[in-house]
Amino acid sequence: MTTIDTNLQQLQQRIARACTAARRPADSVQLLAVSKTWPADAVVQAVAAGQLQFGENYIQEGVEKIQALASHPKRATLVWHCIGPVQGNKTRLVAEHFDWVQTVDRLKIAQRLSEQRPAHLPPLQVCLQVNVDGGANKSGLAPADVRPLAQAVAQLPGLRLRGLMCIPEPTSDFEAQKSIFTSARALFDSLTGCSPQWDTLSMGMSDDLEAAIAAGSTLVRVGRAVFGERPPKP
Ligand SMILES: *Cc1c(COP(=O)(O)O)cnc(C)c1O
Predict the structure, then answer these.
(1) How many CA atoms lie within 13 A of 168 on its CB side?
(2) Per-residue pLDDT tens for 206-234?
(3) Cα of 223 from ligand 1 centre, angstroms
(4) Ligand 1 atom closest to Cα of residue 205
(5) Among 34, 53, 131, which residue has the most ligand 1 atoms within 8 Å of its CB, making it the best to mutate?
(6) pTM of the predicted model, to two decimals?
(7) How many Cα atoms are found within 13 Å in the side-chain-facing hemisphere of 11?
């Protein structure tokens, strides 16, 4: 067994324990493995261990990995999420290569993604990024701005709006984490019905996934607890 294999098993147990503690079914939370900065080989190892959903922050790097996996026997079952900021000049790469983008926070970007989504692909699955705790220099919408953008994005033919994503400021206190995630959940619930398939609340990472699951996350995005500490960025 590889380290990634062991890490994934331990992580699935962590998720299962958190679900039990929250009286939620074990299959109500999905795991997105955040492979940013790790080579395609690490993704191949995770796929061998049964992991199919991957998150990338840096678009060019993500596209290179998607292409590196394009001849993998499981390629058709892999799901790639863009979880990093999307500038206007990168929308085409996202629209052409990824299955999901979780960081939409402007209509202009959403419109470009919709227009540039190739017709032979299913709609690009979208979460709006919300700055739920008002963290400084974070991307994401203010909570009050989410509904109008959700209503506009839900109309775009190349996109399918699925839910919200948030990245609160890190804190080590469980109750503080949970209270912020609970406000994200309340916002998510208040928008039920704004899109035909409103089912994804992406929150929780290596250090706070228990609190996120307690508050109602449906998708945790985990990097270090799967792949190990990231090498420092050059
Ligand atoms: C890096 C990253 C993660 C994973 O963080 P870890 O602490 O390594 O689990 C999750 N979400 C986003 C948006 C990230 O950039």
Answers:
(1) 28
(2) 999 999 999 999 999 999 999 998 877 65
(3) 5
(4) 9
(5) 34
(6) 0.96
(7) 31
30-34 and 53-56 strand pairing: parallel
The domain 3-227 having CATH identifier 2.60.120.920: the answer here is no
Q: Give the tens place of pLDDT for each residue, 98-124.
A: 999 999 999 999 999 999 999 999 999
Q: Cα separation of 233 and 211, whole Å?
A: 28
93 is written with which tokens? 């790469």
| E-only strand ranges, the chain | 30-34, 53-56, 79-82, 100-104, 124-129, 159-165, 200-202, 219-222
Cα–Cα distance, 74 to 17 (Å, whole number): 29
Cα-based distances in Å from 150 to 37, 104, 126, 154: 31, 10, 10, 6
Separation of 57 CA from ligand 1 center, angstroms? Answer: 9
